[in-house]
What does this fold into?
Amino acid sequence: MADEPFSDDYLAQLSYEKLASLVTEGKVGFNQARRVIGLSPFPGSEIKDQPPPKPVAGPAIQDLVLEDVIERKRIGIERYGQPVLPHNGRDALVDLYQELLDAVMYTRQLIYERDHPQEQEIWHGSLVERGGAVCSADYPNMSTTTIRSRVTCPSCRMLMG
It folds into this structure.
């Protein structure tokens, strides 16, 4: 690939340990390393390795996260009468796993929507062709905010809009 500093041929001669260290150091991209050892890139491989961040002004993200943590603690106390405490009767590992799955789904959605903005126009065009309404039975993942008029779906009799 054009922006890869090492050729696949060079990397193929290295030990797995040396290749792994180059990946860890950010000198070799993860998908290039997978390709070199004979593995296919991960699904969603249109996500490219990124360059180092540029020096910019702005708030430290860590400070923003700390503010968010304090706010989440406040909300937890307001809703449940206490912050998150150990041995609270919940399985924190399961909670974490479920939250991470949700986060991964939202992250992938954002990446897809950022990289395919034209599809929003395609969906809107198909809605207009059908009179501004779409049945959730036909498009279960379609947001109801895109529905522009109140009609009854002829196939499922559901009131839309």
In short: Strands lie at 151-152, 159-160.
